[in-house]
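Hi R.,

Here's the chain you asked about this morning:
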Amino acid sequence: MQSSNEKLRSLMIQLHNRTDAAKLAFDEAVEELERQRSENDRRYQTKRDQLREERRLWDEERAALEKLVSSASSIVNLNVGGEKISTTRHTLTQPEGSLLAAMFSGKLDHKLTKDSTGCIFLDYDPALFKCLLNQLRTWSDPGVKRVIRPPAGHEQAFFDLLYLLKIDERFIDRDRSAITGSTTIPSPTPWQPDAPRSRQSDKEPLRFWTLENSEVQLSENDRRCENFSRGLYQCIFGSQTYSKGTYRVRLRLEEGTANVLMGICSYSKTLAGPVHYNTPSAHGWFVHGYIVINGREPQPGWPQVNVNDILELKINCDEQMLSIYNERSGAKSSMEVSLYEAPLPWCLLILFNLEHSRVSIV
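And the predicted structure, written out as tokens:
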């Protein structure tokens, strides 16, 4: 009996030992699984952080690229009937709901026809299209009435262009009394500088002068000029000529927030055309932020000028340089003047387009 009990006790001890060993092995297996899970969690966290950082860098690069593309595409280069014109997408999309706005919304760029230089080709009369474009450029000013007037003598052709571009009737002024004062396509009487005025010594006070048929009124001893024309560009010139040395002219913008140009032109070259500033000798700055060099199509690049700002023109004949400085904002800009296109002597040039624009000599 005793022997039987000892055998049973021996078996129970063996079973207990095996159970302890199995429990120890189980605990070790569980511990190993926990260690592996912890390691996997660490690796997962590290990989996730790495992917998040790569995604952040990718998003930043994409945003920078989109900003660059957006900035580059804001300027649109056109070939209108064989004539190159540059403007902004904002100007072209001003007439809401029109075909013109839809074409340059950015959604149809891939469908627009381009010439060999990459300019978007439009098969329209360039003079009529520029007449439309010059009016649309003023619409960025909240104070300017959003209206389009046809050029005198070309009303029907201009209305046909507006119809093709699906410009809404609410933007079109068909009033015959208003048409007579709008921008004309035929060239006006050219300016012959040696005919109406003799040159004035630079020792005499600078004054304005203008053409006999001009709708600009001079006052304050010819040191203030104001436009009374509706939509027709008007030329005003300075009485002094500049051939050598450096000169400074201070001008105050008393009225007008768009289509007022301040600059110079060649005294010996005729200004002509419906807008005058596209004559090669014309150089200067529009107060609404555009620059004209060698009479080329205005390009953005100059800060908006406010009413009552004083602008100093620096005319350096020796270095063939022209610069401008806004005394209020501190904004500066300069340009080289080609003597081939604008031979010396030079004279001050002011251009007006909108009624009641006014500039004075300080």
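The CA atoms of residues 196 and 211 lie 8 Å apart.

Let me know if you need anything else.
M.
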